[in-house]
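Please, structure for the following, as tokens.
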Amino acid sequence: MQLSEQEIIRRDKLNALRELGINPYPADLFPVNHTSKQVKANFTEGKKVILAGRLMSVRDQGKAAFAEIQDSEGRMQVYFNRDFICQGEDKTLYNQVFKKLTDLGDFIGIEGELFMTKVGAMCVRVDDFKMLSKTLKPLPLPKTDEEGHVFDAFTDPELRYRMRYVDLVVNPQVKEVFVKRTKLFTAMRTFFNEAGYMEVETPVLQSIPGGAAARPFITHHNSLDIPLFMRIANELYLKRLIVGGFDGVYEFSKNFRNEGMDRTHNPEFTAMEIYVAYKDYNWMMEMTENLLEYCTTQVNGTTEATFGEHKVNFKAPYARVTMTDAIKQFTGFDITGKSEDELREAAKSLGIEVNDTMGKGKLIDEIFGEKCEGNFIQPTFITDYPKEMSPLCKSHRDNPELTERFELMVCGKEIANAYSELNDPIDQRERFEAQMALAEKGDDEANGIIDEDFLRALEYGMPPTSGLGIGMDRLIMFLTNNPSIQEVLFFPQMRPEKKGPELTEDEKHIIEILKANEGISIGELKIKADLSGKKWDAASKGISKHGLMKITVDGENKIVEYLGK
């Protein structure tokens, strides 16, 4: 393993601490009794406190230093003074341990007394401190110049997602997204629990991938010698529990779909599904808008949210538009009673790419998705979907060609899907068989497997039931104004890390300048790099050796270009 200069220096400091008899990774409890937030909220001069966190900045003043430590709730200014810390003749703890062997990013514990600085800042005067964990890699801390401009910020998305542990440390605002995510789950649980519904767990490994139309991940169970599927949805298991006598069950479900990845899709995602007996989709619409009004208020303190250029208000009630009317409004085409061939020709005339494997449901879905979906910004229920699009949904009580289904659209995206659930076992079997026919025809999104056990459960009788599914990742995207799903997942799925050349700190420094300055003269590059002649020679040779820069002659100037990605 090739180490950078900084990593070598930190390992040398690690050994020096051990030579002084200091364990850089102590096992014993450190008796923290305050967080930075608690200190600020209940500040009293002279109060004794014990804090712990990362050392994030130091302003050295010789025999004293002001510093900041960062814990889970923010930063706290602390004051190190040699004579307070080392009251005897031995000044090792300050002169050696603090000044020479402690680095930014190290975890330290401090004991001290609160005081107010001359400029009115709350501060802890350190009486004693302890090394709790020595860091071996330097944090990519952003820097601010005298004019307030920030540079060297840790903003590269791939690095941030891959090293979320670093992102959370150096970009504290990122943490707030995940605090709100937890608040959302807590609020939703509270809403359901107070209504008397029961949170349950259903299998992640399933013998049949059911409850949705999606490609599953497949694995093999060695002991049973059978294939198993990572669940694409938990719907059919929750309905089995309604058959078993529960009046209302819900689950926050980790689902897995072996499909494409983009800014709104991750192969592993979280959905909430709830099923309530003796209800229909009209009741579920009212419950959904009340649920989201409650949750958004709990998360953001208001029903309003900003998403990109849009201001969205989740206050109930929401508009209701049938799918037929939505398509008619935005295309002028009426899908009522149209055959598969008529729908295919209409889609083509609208410039929508279709093929012969698509049945009526898929064709209607494509027309709506391409021409209508993006027009619904404020929360809107799209209702009464054609039967071919909803194999698990009850036929509409007034029109047998439709189903009692709605999807909730926000900013042109679906965040919720709900049905009056199909509980007729004979009708359900026919719907499954129709899906199999589509799969055999080549529709790779149709489910080509019949869940015989689920049909058997329905034959034992399921009461009238309404079900709702909400995409939790997408909902928190709207509530935190994040257009990318990767921003609201702690650890989104990533491609395997490409192992590039190991670079020294000086080489990285020069490359950052090259990235920020497309085509820079070698003279200007040397000035910006501000390295000694020896360091410049070593770093520039290393970068050239790795094939990361090119020098071209332009008249009297030598122009340097970065060749990496």
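The mean pLDDT is 93. DSSP finds 18 helices and 23 strands in the chain.
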